[in-house]
Amino acid sequence: MPEFNPNHIMHGSGGAAWWNGKKLTTLQSVEAKVTGDFEDINVCGDTATYKIYNGYAGEGTLTVLKIDSEILIQMAEAFRTGVMPEITVITAQTQKGTNKVERVAYSDVTIDEFMLAKFEKMAKTEQEIPFKFGNFEVLETL
Which long-range CB contacts under 8 A does 41-45 form with residues at least 24 apart? Predict the structure, then answer.
């Protein structure tokens, strides 16, 4: 384990995300997680409960400042026609002081819902993009 250096603590300012290869320049936050699907297993003569792994589900949310309607147009067309686009999301976070990067690619991305309008007076407009993914690949680690 490397020696502790507070200058190397990961910081959100070093984060970025790409939607189908296009950088989300007004990115505010990213959250992506994988949740395991485990089934309980019990056997006669043993009081313990064991777990068997069945697979996983991936989901996340991208939040951006709204400056265009690109994603809205893409998803509105998909929902109207029933033809869903192929979507890939890549996230990256750089560790300051070392230039090391942690990058993850998410593929087989689906959008189950999207906001048509959300704003309030005297406030910047943010667009939340909740997504689910079928596959992921850790591309780089620290």
Answer: none
Give pTM, 2 decimals.
Answer: 0.84
Which CATH architecture group holds 6-140? Roll (2.30)
Summarised one tens digit per residue, pLDDT across range 16-58 is 999 999 999 999 999 999 999 999 999 999 999 999 999 999 9
DSSP 86-107: P--EEEEEEETTTTEEEEEEEE
Hey, is 122 helix, strand or coil? Answer: coil
- Distance CA(93)–CA(71), nearest Å, equals 23
Smallest CA-to-CA distance from 91 within 2, 3, 27 is with 27
